[in-house]
Amino acid sequence: MIGHRYRDVIAVAAALAGPLLVALVLLPFRTGVSRTNLALILVVVVVAVAALGSRPAGALSALSAAAWFDFFLTPPYQSLLIHRAADVQTAVLLLAVGLVVSQLAARARRLKVITVTDAGYLARIHNTARLAQGATSADAVVDHVRRELGDLLHLRACRFEYGSLLGHPPRLEQDGGLIVGRRRWEVERRGWPEEDVELRAFGNGHFQGRFMLSPVPGERPSLQARLVAVTLADQAGVALDTAGPARREQ
What we know:
single chain; alpha+beta; Beta-Lactamase; 2 domains; three-stranded antiparallel β-sheet; 6 strands; 13% strand; globular; KdpD_TM; KdpD_sf; nucleotide-binding
């Protein structure tokens, strides 16, 4: 118990100091590197803190990263004001993506699985969050996620089905595991099964539909990739839930 408390204290300290120190290191590059890339570097710090500590520590580090990004890396510098709309959007996305991936990292630590730190995976989450924030249609987000899943998991095809669940296909779970029938399927050892796999999309706790993944038999997507796939599907679910009943009845 004392060990856990000590680790939580360290995580809170890292949540406060880590983003600040990294923001200071990035100061010389703030005019030569895009602010989106600077924000992604800070997201990696958020993930590291969440992997070390708890969900609150991850959330605190996301808030700290957004604040120091605003203060040091967006003009006017040394101010919490932001003049450019694009910088406002980047700061908001940094906070949103930081919160999402920090919760994912904390969940991964609790499940004793690998955390998502790959820059390419983080960029997929960031780009989807950016689209979800600005899209006028939830269908655009769903279509974007469908393409991302196809590329991320090296699928033959991917489609989205609205409405209720039919049948009992293999299912990709929230922890990145795969259930075939009632048993866990070892993807790393056996690869994908031959039939289509469902990935359910939830928005604010409400089932919105499912992505049907048509895998290449024998492909072995990493646990990191599968966790990112689950996160992308939930982002589509949130977009659908925000669109409201009118969209779901179409």
